[in-house]
Design goal:
2 domains, two-stranded antiparallel sheet, 7 helices, five-stranded mixed β-sheet, 267 residues, alpha/beta, 434 Repressor (Amino-terminal Domain)
């Protein structure tokens, strides 16, 4: 077999799409397609990476003839017991991809080390991670944890959560962070419909040190149509019953859970 035939075989043997392999090599899918068609050849650095990814010797990969599985000592053909995906320590990193899948995704895909490393799986861990549960510098998933996180539930330095976000900067339906933006927010700076924070800005209700909202409850400053300013310098010095009555009067259809949350901090 020639190089382009071996490459296509090994890729399919591991269950990779051309896009998957391209991500691992930091090249375009079109480059993989050209290599497999024989119309172009990879540079030596990429050949070394390919040999590490597939666990074959560089010599057998480049030369016409059988493939030699360098890590297992096998040669002369394609043994049926070759693993679906062999974990490996490569050039400055480690990668593992499980054989079992769920909803078309590997149960686990870990790709860590130097440089940009992509991971895609039910549980994905990598520089850029995409999965149901994703952990990475940049993560995208139902549950995302990372420097920059996007998901249904997101935890990160910068977190965007469709349902909830927790982070230095948190943006979500429920947002908790140093800076929180959303519907129900809590943070040093909280901006939303219902906000609690050092500086709270709420279109409906704001509770905090400095509060700006239709109903504003503040320790030091309260600015709103209905304003409640603490006389003791503490939120516990604000009459909870009076604030709750004002909320029910201004927003009669408001969910009781939100009313309890916004007045929990009061005396």
């Amino acid at each position: 077999m020639r190089f382009h035939e071996k490459l296509q075989y090994l890729r399919k043997e591991r269950g990779f799409s051309q896009e998957d392999l391209a991500e691992r090599l930091s090249v375009s899918r079109q480059a993989i397609s050209k290599w497999e068609s024989g119309s172009a050849h990879p540079e030596i650095e990429k050949l070394v990476q390919l040999s590490e990814i597939f666990g074959v010797t560089l010599d057998s990969l480049m030369k016409e003839g059988p493939i030699e599985y360098g890590r297992s000592g096998r040669s002369n053909g394609f043994a049926e017991d070759v693993p679906f995906y062999r974990p490996y320590w490569g050039r400055g990193g480690y990668e593992y991809k499980s054989k079992r899948t769920l909803f078309g995704l590997p149960l686990v895909h870990i790709n860590i080390g130097f440089g940009i490393r992509h991971a895609k799986g039910f549980l994905a861990i990598g520089t850029i991670a995409r999965g149901v549960i994703s952990i990475g510098l940049v993560s995208l998933g139902l549950l995302s944890i990372g420097l920059l996180s996007l998901g249904l539930l997101a935890f990160g330095t910068i977190a965007f959560g469709l349902l909830a976000a927790f982070g230095g900067i948190a943006i979500g339906t429920i947002a908790i962070g140093g800076v929180a933006l959303g519907i129900l927010t809590m943070g040093g700076l909280a901006i939303g419909m219902f906000s609690i924070g050092g500086l709270a800005i709420g279109s409906h209700i704001a509770v905090g040190g400095h509060a700006y909202g239709h109903i504003a409850v503040g320790q030091s400053l309260a600015n709103g149509t209905r304003a409640f300013l603490s006389e003791t310098g503490s939120l516990s010095g604000v009459d909870r019953g009076a604030v709750e009555a004002a909320i029910r009067e201004e927003f009669p259809n408001l969910w009781n859970g939100i009313i309890r949350w916004m007045t929990f901090w009061l005396g």
